[in-house]
C-alpha cells in the first residue's frame, strides 16, 4: 500500500545453535494515481492524454493500438503527457502508458480512446400525413450520429405544449381517430454524447369528412321549437337535413345549414332527423339519426 512505501524488511533465521539476520531490503511502492481519459474532438484537433504515478525514478513509454488493443506499438513519447493530432485515420485509436520504476518493474495504465466527435443531424424529416379516420398513419425520421435514441412527442394545442409518446424508435405509428385529427408530432433525437436535436413538426389530418358532433334526441312540449345540430371537419362542407317518420324512408328537408330547427307538432312526434354532409370533392357522410318526441 502507499503507507508501506519505504518500509524495510529483514529475516531472522534461527536453529538450535543460534540465529543469523539477513540483510535488509526496502519496499518501494509506486502506484498510478491518475489514469488517462478518453478524448473526443474535431478532426485535426490536439488530443491530450496524461498520467500521474508515484514511485522512484519512473520512466514512461506511451503505446497505441489501432486494432482495439490486440497489438500495441511504442510511440516516441516518453513523458507523462501524450499529445497527438486527431486525424481521420486515428479515429478510435487506443493509447496507454507503460510506467517502469528504478528496479525495472513495469505496469500498464488503463487504455483511453481518441474519437472524432460526429455532428448530430437529422437527414430525413417527418412529413405531414392525411388519411381516412380509422387508418394507421406513420411518421419517419432519419438522423446521422453515434448511439442514437429517439423520443416522439405529440401536441394537441397547436404546438404550445408537447407530451412524450411511448414510441422510442425512428418510426412513429398511430391510429388516426377523430380526436387526433390535426395532432402535431415531432421527434427528439439524442446521441451517445448527450447532444440532442428536434425534428420538424408534422401533422396528421383526416382526408374526407369527420363528424365531430352528432345530433341528439330532443324531448319537448308540443308546439315548441326544437333544434338539432351537427358539426363536422372537411373542405367547403355543405349540409342537407333529412327527415323520416319510419326510419326507412328519408326525405330531404329545406334546411341546408349545420342547425335544423322546427316546431314540434303532434304530427311530428317521433319524427327522426339526420344530416347529409358533403365536401368540395363530392364525398358525403351521414350523421346519426336523432328523434324529436313530445313529452
Rg computed from alpha carbons, rounded to a whole number of angstroms = 40 Å
The N- to C-terminal Cα distance equals 97 Å
Share of helix, binned? under 10%
Label the structural class: mainly beta
List the helices and strands and how they pair.
Blueprint: E1 8-9, E2 12-15, E3 18-21, E4 25-26, E5 31-34, E6 39-41, E7 46-50, E8 52-54, E9 59-65, E10 73-74, E11 81-85, E12 94-100, E13 106-108, E14 112-116, E15 121-124, E16 129-131, E17 136-140, E18 142-144, E19 149-155, E20 163-164, E21 171-175, E22 183-190, E23 196-198, E24 202-206, E25 210-213, E26 218-220, E27 225-229, E28 231-233, E29 238-244, E30 251-252, E31 259-263, E32 272-278, E33 284-286, E34 290-294
Parallel strand pairs: 6-14, 16-24, 26-34
Antiparallel strand pairs: 1-4, 2-3, 5-8, 7-11, 9-10, 9-12, 12-13, 12-14, 15-18, 17-21, 19-20, 19-22, 22-23, 22-24, 25-28, 27-31, 29-30, 29-32, 32-33, 32-34
Give a structural overview.
With 295 residues, this protein is mostly beta strands. It has no helices and 34 strands. It has strands spanning 8-9, 12-15, 18-21, 25-26, 31-34, 39-41, 46-50, 52-54, 59-65, 73-74, 81-85, 94-100, 106-108, 112-116, 121-124, 129-131, 136-140, 142-144, 149-155, 163-164, 171-175, 183-190, 196-198, 202-206, 210-213, 218-220, 225-229, 231-233, 238-244, 251-252, 259-263, 272-278, 284-286, 290-294. The strands form 11 sheets. Strands 6, 9, 10, 12, 13 and 14 form a 6-stranded mixed sheet that branches. Strand 2 (12-15) and strand 3 form a beta hairpin. The radius of gyration is 40 Å and the shape is rod-shaped. The mean pLDDT is 92.
